[in-house]
Amino acid sequence: MITQKHSFHIPVMGIAFTLDSPIKVARYGIDSVMSIVEDRIIESMRSYYYPFINKEYIPIPDSVKDYRAKRIQDYLNLVNSIVKDQIEKIKASAFEKGSEIVKYFEMLPNHHPAKELFYKMMKMEDPQEKAKIESLLRNQITPGSIDVNIMTKVDKDNLDKNKQVIEDHSDAVAALRGYANADLEHSAIVFSAGLNPRLYNYLEKCSGFDIDENGQFKKRIIIKVSDYRSALIQGKYLAKKGFWVSEFRIESGLNCGGHAFATDGYLMGPILQEFKDKKEELKNSLFELYQKFNIEHDKKIYKECPEIRITAQGGIGTHEEDDVLKSYYEISSTGWGTPFLLVPEATTVDENTMQLLSKATKDDIVLSNNSPLGVRFHYLKGTSSDIEKQKRIDKGKPGSPCPEKHLALNTEFEGEALCTASQKYQKLKIAQLASLDLEEDERSVQMNKILEKECLCIGLSNAAAQEYNAPFLKKYHAVTICPGPNIANFSEIVSLSSMVDHIYGRTNIMTNEQRSNMFINELRLYIDYLVEQILASKDLENEPKKKKQLNDYYTNLKSGIAYYRGLPDEIAIKTSKFLEELQSAENEIDKLKEMYL
């Protein structure tokens, strides 16, 4: 059984924004996730944190064999060491107002047994009895999980001096090796963005993912998914190879930050319901395959199925929503991402970008095509990176420098693979466009598709480089940030304690009191997406495949609306406002159906 102090976690955000979150929050028992895709910013973080704790920083240069994995491994060891030291200091601190140990227990959920015991101890007058309880409480202090994220699509091959692919040194595989070799215990690796066979197969060369005699995993596997089918497919793939998925982390297809993987109109509520209804079926089907592997490979057979947790994230904004996810949908933990971008004690955001976030309205967050991955990407307008990109376009020199090349995956032109945000690619693409015989309007549309791509490797890393004065690439300072639409409802820069109190319903820091429920907000995003898809089609009557796809999308939205309307009346979110907004949304998609489909 996984020991968990808090019922929420901080998901991975960008590259830099949660890169040192465990150093900030793990000592309070809070789980958080770091991105380990960009090894150069990780090297910069090593150069910052070693002197920070009065230890010598020894660089790991590119010339070192397997430098990428070694940088990641050492940084994770460093973070682990810092957190362990923090925990020991908290255990040794006094139970007095304002101390770290008091803060630890005060932030726990109200009904957590350790918190109840803490308040009982604080009221005791007998010194001996009080000392016994204090000792008991100190022994209950454990850190939050130090988890890492690998976006499976970011897995570029790397070449040797002879331009030959180096086996097992692709970006994602090297990152996995770095994590597997690190001395983290009771942590997890989160795989996001779909199944990558090469990456999953490399797990067979890693240690630490086997279950122990107590039914525990030193290193757990978490899969981020958008629906049940994806969970079943990826879970089975790994179970057949002897790897247990300890958690499926459901994320809203559109009501999230960063890359958005829209479903075909399937909404969060029905998806959560399917996981709730089929959880035992999921466990049993995976356990059967897991046991079969153990039998065939003469491994220990376990009578009891290891734990599978179902967690959820994407657009959560209130304690009431959080409570519904846990009490009705039986979610083990909720992911609160975007609001934590306004918590300097938890995430790393430079001052200029922090101010932009605090002032952001719903019109400032766009579901862009900016990502070179070709996946839709939630994006804050007006960042330094946004401004810098436009300046290059105005000067007639579009595109970004591409020193990192993690997203250099396009092979459209002969020669090396290129990033679609790079200067080289955009120059070639613009020349190609100039050679085509196109109407001016179409030419403008195609030009915009080229120019909107933006460097993410640098842009999503630079916040940490600026905040700690630890530049990882000279001359490049622009910041990109990718909050979810939910940021429009939060405008205050707050303390960690205030954000935790908001999550648990002890205070309210939301600045938009008229905000709709998270399920309604997601539904609105899917309707906007449907409108966009309809308008992008020139003649649906002559595009039968596209028309069928949009009709299926419409049908799934209708089904989702019917599901929400049929929720039990006692569920807190089912208010008159909720039902009115459902009806309004249904009227809108029915009108779209009548006009276009």
Enumerate the spans where pLDDT stays under 50 for 5 or more consecutive residues: none
Portion in beta strands: 5-15%
Given helix and strand content, the structural type is: alpha/beta
Tally of DSSP helical segments:
21
Q: How many beta strands in the DSSP annotation? A: 10
Largest sheet: 8 strands, parallel, barrel
Could you tell me the mean pLDDT?
96
Shape: globular
* Radius of gyration, CA atoms, in whole angstroms: 25 Å
What proportion of the residues is helical, as a percent range? 40-55%
Compact description:
Helix content is 45%, strand content 8%.
Topology at a glance:
Elements lengths: L7 E3 L10 H5 L5 E5 L3 H14 L14 H26 L7 H7 L6 H10 L4 H13 L6 E6 L19 H11 L5 E6 L4 H6 L16 E7 L2 H12 L5 E7 L16 H29 L12 E5 L5 H9 L6 E2 L15 H9 L5 E4 L8 E4 L3 H11 L28 H12 L5 H12 L4 H4 L2 H6 L28 H8 L14 H19 L7 H22 L10 H21 L1
Parallel strand pairs: 1-2, 1-8, 2-3, 3-4, 4-5, 5-6, 6-7, 7-8
Antiparallel strand pairs: 9-10
Helix pairs in contact: 2-3, 3-7, 5-6, 9-10, 14-15, 19-20, 19-21, 20-21
Tell me what you see in this structure.
With 597 residues, the protein is α/β, with parallel strands linked by helices. Helices cover 45% and strands 8% of the residues. The protein contains 21 helices and ten strands. Helix 7 links the parallel strand 3 and strand 4. Helix 2 packs parallel to helix 3, helix 3 packs parallel to helix 7 and helix 19 runs antiparallel to helix 20. It is globular. The N and C termini lie far apart (50 Å). The mean pLDDT is 96.
